[in-house]
Amino acid sequence: MGGYLIYFAIIILVPLWAQMRVKGSFRKYSKVPASSHMRGAEVARQILDSNGLYHVGIEEVRGHLSDHYDPRSKTVRLSSDNFHGHSVAAAAIAAHEVGHAIQDQQDYAFLRFRHTLVPVANIGSNFSWILIMIGFFAGISGFVLLGILFMAAAVVFQLVTLPVEFNASSRAMDQVVSLGIIRNDEERETRKVLNAAALTYVAAAAVAVLELLRLVLIYTGMQRND
Question: Active-site positions?
Answer without folding.
Answer: 97
